[in-house]
Amino acid sequence: MKNKYWIAFSSIEQIDSLFIKRLYEYFGDIEVAFNSSLAELKNIEGLSVKKAENFLKYRDKVDIDRTYTEVETRGINFLTLENENYPELLRQISNPPAVLYYKGKLFECNLDKTLAVVGSRRASSAGRDDLRKILSGLGGTDICIISGLASGIDTVAHTTAIENNIKTIGVIASGFDYTYPTSNKTLYENIINGYGAIVSEYYPTFEPMKFRFPQRNRIVSGLAHGTLVCEASLKSGALITANLTLEQGRELMCIPGAISNPNTQGIYKLLKNGASIITETEDILNTLGWEVKGQSQSADQLTLPMLTPDEEKIYNSLEIEEKGIDELLSLTGLDIDSLLMNLTTMELKGIIKQCGADRYKKA
Fold first, then answer.
1. How high is the pLDDT of residue 351?
2. Domain 104-288 has what CATH class?
3. pTM score of the predicted model
4. What sign does the dihedral 354-358-361-362 (CA atoms) show?
């Protein structure tokens, strides 16, 4: 069975997918490639002899049957480069994963309408809200949201997808023996148990090492027709993914933000260099040329509950940004008792929400 040789290759931490792909393409057979000699490897033009010797050193320590059994017993599915079900978009990039491990319902996700979402781990509340608003407009459609399951923007992308009945794929930077960050354990489980799939190029025992996160980014963008960036500093993983998106010939889109926010410096650099600007859901669909099935109303189209005159004053005061109690007293002309009573009522209706001590914003 050829699959066990793909897994055996994948279990060697000292080589990468590009090395495996190169050997497979040269020999045309994964078993022959795995069992090749140093003399045969030296015939591959441009292949480093040191890399070849390193591979042989660790290959001879691999128990082929055991490595395959360890994947099976963990309930992990996988696709190899020679599998006809391997995602076609991912296969097209210069360095596709030799083996793509996955858990969940990968083939219930529409891989023909995939949108990658990346951004800062320390995103502002405004950035998070902007992303929720834009992605919520895709609610109930056949689009699939892809992100990296990190904290910050990645988490917002996955959770907003789940909340709006959108399939989502998380790409992790370790094997399935690890959950990183641990705070996203419930999110992992929700995705696997019906909301999409989690994928990785790493053998189950590989740890989430620092260098693996940038490597992971090429898969996030490689699985997607386009990438949406929400908040990114000039030195960030999100900018790495943005550059990979362009190298892969895919659409790059950005949500603008406050120019005073350091996390928007990378955004405006990308916009100045030609990235598409996204301020509403329709911008994504127009940029990618998509018509979607079952699209729900966007956040701007949703009908608000009937507001009283006092509630309307408060709501209009929060139109641009969050406000504190003193600001709302001044803008609405209400007395403190009436203001507090209306704020409580509006929170219960889900129209506004509290964001910090005595500060409120539109929900």
1. 87
2. alpha beta
3. 0.83
4. positive
